[in-house]
Amino acid sequence: MNAIGTVSIGSPASVRRLQAAEMLWRVALGGLAVMPLAMAVAHRSTPLFLGVSALSALGATALEGRFRQLVRESASALFRPTGIAVLAFLALSVISISWSQFNDISIQALGEFWLPIAGAFILCQVLPKRMTRQAFWMLAGSVAAACLLIIVELETGLTLRRSLGMRADSFIFNRPSLTLLVLLPPLLVWLVTQIPRGWAVALAILVLVGAAVARSDSGAAGLGLIVMGLAFVSAWASVRATAIVMAAGFVAAMAMAPFLGPISESLIPPAVHKALAGGHSRERVAVWQSFGAAVRVQPGLGAGFGMSPRMRKSKIVWKVPKEHRRFLGIGHPHNLPLQIWTELGMVGAVLALAIVLLVIRAICRQSRLVASTSLALLAAAGAVALVGHGAWQGWWAASLGASVAWMLATCRTRLETRP
To answer: O-antigen ligase-related domain: which residues (predicted)?
Structure first.
């Protein structure tokens, strides 16, 4: 597949402009492909590579004289149900600055989260039709190299990083492991469907990612990989039944989020807490109780987008029972639905849930393999969101956005090569 395609009829683009566009398309594809390895080296770098890729794609589109066409196609996508739901969630996020006690932290969180989302949206519009086999092979090589780097570094006690004077804490590979997790599904689909005996390469990649995740400190990545496998098997047996179960699970998770702390406290026995001491299960339950108490102070609209890191310093803390105030200073509730409730209230929770349900509906319209893989990816991301990092971290938004772009490219490649 050619990387730049055919210029629109009547376009004044010169040969030089076409050559420049070709170069920019290669930068866009390369930036997205090397993301896993870049994350293994610099564990917050996905927004940078996603941004470079998106800007390069925009530049190439403009040089080809297709910018207005891109604007029309983007507007059309945004005014479909899923796009409208996302725009409504964005509008609420921006408007919430008006009642946020710390406007600076809200604005910073908006930029950190929504800029990668915007970049991913651009790439999803333009990159799938430009994707090449070389780019997928580069992604495969980048994933394999990242896995080997993580495994070797951890097995050697991060000796190389220490010798170079770099940060040498083992947990810095948690984010790269999660990035590998979400980039794995589209890569496996492409290998299995587009490469002769690609299942063997796919199996090797799967083993490498599994080994890297298992060796890392990221319990969330390990959980995500297990959930991904179970969800794929279930969806392969029945896409519709799996989608229904997943939709019900997301509804339950969002509805119960404000009460997650008390529910967990009453259901988790001491023996389980003792077994999970390394994962700080008791502390996590205490965090959920604290932020749940904060939700009950402002349940309708929340405290404002991105306010979780400053909750301990906000006026809300004085309305929270004293025994639950301490863990409001932890930074975020380690649960995405609870963080949405905390910062955007019931309105934000309903909008976020609408987005997820619309995405599930769209997935069910795909072929069996793509639908099964996409549901597995969504299930893994959901599992990570229930126990992992802050909701608005840019590296996670960029990693998920890149995964969606690769998945769309995989879908298009399968359609174009279908007999």
So the answer is: 188-352
